[in-house]
Design goal:
35% of the residues lie in helices and 16% in strands. The chain has 1324 residues and is an alpha+beta fold. Helix 20 packs across helix 22, helix 25 packs parallel to helix 28 and helix 33 packs parallel to helix 38. Keywords: Repeat, WD repeat.
Length: 1324
Amino acid sequence: MKMDLELLHSPAVGPAEEEEADMSDWNLPLAFMKKRHSEKIEGSKALAQSWRMKDRMKTVSVALVLCLNVGVDPPDVVKTSPCARLECWIDPLSMSPQKALETIGANLQKQYENWQPRARYKQSLDPTVDEVKKLCTSLRRNAKEERVLFHYNGHGVPRPTVNGEIWVFNKNYTQYIPLSVYDLQTWMGSPSIFVYDCSNAGIIVKSFKQFALQREQELEVAAINPNHPLAQMPLPPSMKNCIQLAACEALELLPMNPDLPADLFTSCLTTPIKIALRWFCMQKSAKLVPGVTLDLIEKIPGRLNDRRTPLGELNWIFTAITDTIAWNVLPRDLFQKLFRQDLLVASLFRNFLLAERIMRSYNCTPVSSPRLPPTYMHAMWQAWDLAVDICLSQLPTIIEEGTAFRHSPFFAEQLTAFQVWLTMGVENRNPPEQLPIVLQVLLSQVHRLRALDLLGRFLDLGPWAVSLALSVGIFPYVLKLLQSSARELRPLLVFIWAKILAVDSSCQADLVKDNGHKYFLSVLADPYMPVSILQSHIVPMAVFILAVIVTQLHHGTGEACLQGNLISICLEQLSDPHPLLRQWVAICLGRIWQNFDSARWCGVRDSAHEKLYSLLYAVRAVFALGTFVGNSAERTDHSTTIDHNVAMMLALLINDGSPVVRKELVVALSHLVVQYESNFCTVALQFMEEEKNYALPSPANTLEPGNLTPVRDSPAIPRLRSVNSYTNIRAATTVRNLNKSLQNLNLNEEGGPLAFSPGNLSTSSSASSTLGSPDNDEYLLSFETVDKMRRVSSYSSLNSLIGVSFNSVYTQIWRVLLHLAADPFPEVSDLAMKVLNSIAYKATMNARPQRILDSGSLTQSAPASPTSKGTAPPRTRFTFPPTALSPPLTSSLPSPPAVLPPCPAPAAPAPHSHQFPRTRKMFDKGPSGSEQAGDDADDPGGHKAYMNANLSTGLCDWSAKYFAQPVMKIPEEHDVESQVRKEREWRFLRNTRVRRQSQLITQRGVTRLDDQIFINRNPGVPSVVKFHPFNPCIAVADKDSICFSSFCLWPPPLFPNPLAFLYLHSLLPVFLISLHPLDDGALRIWKNFADQRNPEMVTAWQGLSDMLPTTRGAGMVVDWEQETGLLMASGDVRVIRIWDTEREMKVQDIPTGADSCVTSLSCDSQRSLIAAGLGDGSVRIYDRRMGPNECRVMTYREHTSWVVKAHLQKQTDGNIISVSVDGDVRFFELRSPDSVNVLQTVKGLTALDIHPQANLFACGSMNQFIAVYNANGDVISNIKYYDGFMGQRIGAISCLAFHPYWPHLAVGSNDYYMSIYSAEKRLR
C-alpha cells in the first residue's frame, strides 16, 4: 500500500532522469490552481430534465369488445383441424355459446384487472355498431382528458378491410356489419389506446394513421378558412396521443397451433407469465428440464404480486428484463412515453415485447404505433430463459416432496455485472444495461444495501449518470426508501439524494411534500452514523440536502426545521475540522435565514452571528451573515443594533485577499443597504453634496489623518494615471473599450491638475465623461465622482462622525462600498458600483430626505441605538488609499426615465482633461448626454434593476457543483493516466533538464557575457524585464504595455498594461504577478498572459493599503517564495506584509522600523528570513518566525543612499548582497554586524541584478554601458556604446535582469531597445 501511495504522488520518470531529478520540485505547492481560480463562479447550467413526465396519464376506462360468434367461423378464414380454440384460457365449445361468451368476457376483464384494478370496465359482447358507439362515447365522456383503452377481439368476424373497417354484427346476428375506424376514432377521442387481436390487424393500424392524417388536414383547413363547411362542424379530435397494438401485420394470419390459445396476442398482453412458461415448455430446450409438463406448470405455487413465491419471483424477473430491454433499445423520449407515463400502458408494452418474441416464432409479427425497434433477439431474453429453467427445474420436488424454493440468483448476478461495468469500464462507453434491474432490486431487502451502494457509485460518475438514473425511474424508489428506519441505509441514501439534488434541485419540492427533510434532520442528529467509505462526505451532504430544501422555504417546512433544531445543530458543526462541512453549515444557515424572521431570532438566541465571526474570512460565513442582516421583517432597536454590529464586522473584510470573499461582502452589505435604504439615501445625498460644493484644500499645507509624512507637491508626478481594463487586456480602440479601459485609476493625494497617461486614452471626442454605457444610455455615478467622494470625505465634517456611535455606521458602510467600487478585481467593483448607483439614483430621483446637518441627523429614520446598555464599539477608522477604480455596470442596466436636473458647478473645480467639461454633473453623461432628456422624469422606478434584494454572486450554486461531480474519483493531478498529470510530468522533466544543463555551464565558469543573441525595439522605454524561467521568452514592461518576446518569435505580441511584475512558477503553467509602480498597492495575477487574444485575470487584491505619498517613492515591491506559497509585499509603507496565497489571507505584518520606503525585498524559506533594502540606505534582516517587536534581527547602515537591490542568497550559509545608487556593492554575513567585502562599481547606477546560480552581478549606468562582475569583483564584460557603422549602440540603461538559470542577461535602454547577452557560444 505504501508503494502505491508513493507511485500516486511521484512522477513517472526514467532511471537516468530520476537520478538527476530534484524530487523536492515535484512536491512544491501549487498556487492559484484551485477551482475558484480556474472556473467562473456560477452554478451548473440546468439540464433539460425529461424524466419528470409533465403529462402523466391514467387509463381510467376500458372497453372490451368481443366479436366471437361462438360456434360460427367467419367466411374468409379457413381453420386447420385441430385448431387453436382457447379464448382467455377457456374452451368456448365446452359450454353453451352464450355462456361461453359471457365467461370469456368476464375472464378477459379479470386479466386486465390484474394490471389496472381501479379502471372502469365495460364489456360489449358480439355488439352492433350502435352498441359500440354508445359504449365508446360513454367511456370518453366519463374519462374526460384521461386515457381510454379499446380492446377488440375479431376472431368471429371477417378480417379488416383495406378501406379501414372492422366488423361487428346486426341485431339479429344474420349479417356482418362494417365499422369504420374513422368513426371509431371520433367516438373514442384522444388519448386512447387500441388493442386489435385479429388476423390482418396491421391493416387497421395503417388505416388509423391515414384517418388521423386526414383529421389533421381538416383541422388546418378549418383554422385557415372560417367559411369552409368543415369550420361549421364540430372539430374532430386529434389522434396524436393515441397508441395502437396489433396482433400481426396487414397480410398475416394468426397462429392456429392447437397447443396455443386462439387469442395468443391477448394472452401475451394480459397473462405473460403463463403463456411464457407454456411456450418455454414447447421448445426443444425444455427437454433439458426433466419432469416438467404443461399440466405441472399450472400448479406453480404462489401469487404474481408476492415476490417471495416462485410465481411472484418470475413475474418480478420478467418485469426487470422487459424494462431493461426497452430502456436499452428504445429512444429515451419514447421509453418515457410508453413505459413511465401510464402504468397500464407500461405493463402492456412490457408484455408486447414478449408477444413479439413468441409470435415471431410462428411467423407472425405484432405491430405497434408508435413502432418499436425489434427486441425479440435481445441478449436479456437468454437471462429470462435461464431464470425460467432454474425455477421449473425445482417444480417436481417442490410439488411432490414439498422442498423449500431456492430463489433465483438472477438479481445477484445482474448486480455483479453492474459492478464489473463500474470497476472495469472506460469513461466513454455505453450506459450499463443493468441499470433498470438495479432499480428493481431496490424492492428487495436482501439485495437493497448492495444495490444502493452500486447505485451511489454510478451516480458519482457525473451529472450524465444522474440524468440516466432519473430517466430510468429512480426517483419514486429512493423517495419511498426515506420512509425506511434502517440505519445502515442512511449514508447511502444521503449520498444518492445529494447527487440527485446537485443535478436537479427541483426534486426538493417532492422531499418537502413527503416530509423528507425530517429524514435528513435525523441523520444530522444521529451521533452513531454507520461507518462507510463515504463517511467524510455524508454529514456535509446531509447539510447540503437541507440547504437545498430550505432554499424555497415553506412556512411548515421552516417550522419543522426549527423544531428539529436545525440551527443549533448547524452551529455546533461550525467548529468541525472538516472544511466541506463548515462550508455547507454556513450556507444552510444563510439560506434558512433568508426571508424567515423566526429562524433569524432563533439564531440570535443562539448567538449565531457571534459564532460565525470565528469563520469571518470564509466566504460562506460572509454569505450567512449577509442573509442574517438581510431579513425584511419589522425592525426593533435590538435587531438594528445586531445589524450594525454584523455590518462593522463584515467591513473588516474590505481588503481580504480573495475576490470571492469581497464579492460576497458587497452582496452582504447590499442586504443592509436594502433594509436601511432611507438612511443610506441620506448619506449618499450628503456625500454628493460634499462632492459638488467642497473644494479640495491644497494638501501642500495639510497633513492627512493617518499619514505619517506630509504630502508634497511635485509637478513631475501625474495626478491621474490610467490603466487599461483588467477584464480584457487589449488596447482601447473603440468607445466601448475606452470606457472599459478607464477601470483602474491612480489618483495622487495632492488633488492638483489631472493628466491622463497618453498610452491608453483615445483622443476621440465621443468618449463619455462618465464610465457608463458606451451607448450613452445610462445615468450612473462615474468613476471620477466616486473617487472624489472618497477623497473629499476625508476633509469634510463627515470625518467627525467616524467611530463616535452607531449613528455613523451608515457613513462607514458607504465608504466601504466606495472603496469596493475601486477594487482591482472587476467583478467586485461592478457589484459595488451597482449598489452605489442604485442608492444614488433613488436618493436623487425620489422625494429627497432631509439633508444631513449634523451627526445626529444621520439616522433619523432608523430606530435609535440603545445608549444606556453596553458601550459603543471601539473606534474604527477606514482609510482608503488611492486605488484603481473599476467601471460601473454598463450594457446590462436599463435606461433611466429622465435626465436629472443640472447640479451647480463646484466652487473650485479641479481641472479635468480635454475630454471632460469643467462643469461636471453628478449624473452627466458627457458631451452628448443631455440630448436624451425624456418626458417621464417623474417615474422613480427606472433604475430598480441596478440592485434588488436578490443580488447574488452565484456562490451557493457554484458550491453545489462539487456534489454533482465525482467525489470518489482519484483527482486528476493524482491520476497517472490523466492529461493534467502528464502535462505536469512533462513540465517537471523540462524544468529538471533546464536546471541541469544550465548548472553544467555555470559550473564551468562564465568568463565573458557579451554575446548579443537577441535585439528588439520595444513600443516604449523598457522599465522592467523578466525572463520566463524555462521557456525562451522575455516579458518587457514600459509605462503603457508589456511586450512578450520569444527568442525566435517575431514580431512580439503586445500586452497593454503598465506594471512591474514577476513570475510565479512551479510545476504549473507560469503565472504573472503585476503591480503598478507608485500605484494603489493592488496585486493582480494573470494566466495565458502571453496570449494576446486570451489573457485572463486569475485573481486580484489589495496587497498594500495606506501607501504613503512621497516625492520619490519605491511604489510597491514584492518577492515570491515558491516553497511556502508566501508572497511578501512592501514599498511606500512602514510594514512588510506577508500573504498566504493558498488561503488568500494576510498572515503577518512585519514593521520595518524605518521612516523610509522599502526598495527591495528578498526572502529565504529555509531560514524564514527576509532581507529588505530601504530608501535611507539601510539593509534590514527580519525573521518572520518571531513577534512583531523582535523580528528585526539585524540592521546594516553602511550605504549612504537609496538601496537599489538587496539579495539574500538561498544557500544555508548564504550571504546578503546589497547595492546602492552610488554603485557600492556590499557583502554581509548574517553573523557579522559589518560587511565582509565592499566593491565599487559604476557611478550613476540605474539598474542592477544578481544571478541566483552563477556568481555574477550586472550593473547598468545612465552613461550607456553595462558592467558584469564575478563574485570576486572582477569585471568580466563591459558592454558599451560604440560609434561607427558596425558599432554596437545602446542608450542609457533603464532595466536589466538575469535569467534564473541560464547565463543570459536582458538589458533595456532608453532608446526603446531590448537586448539579450549571453556567454560565449562554446559554453552554450
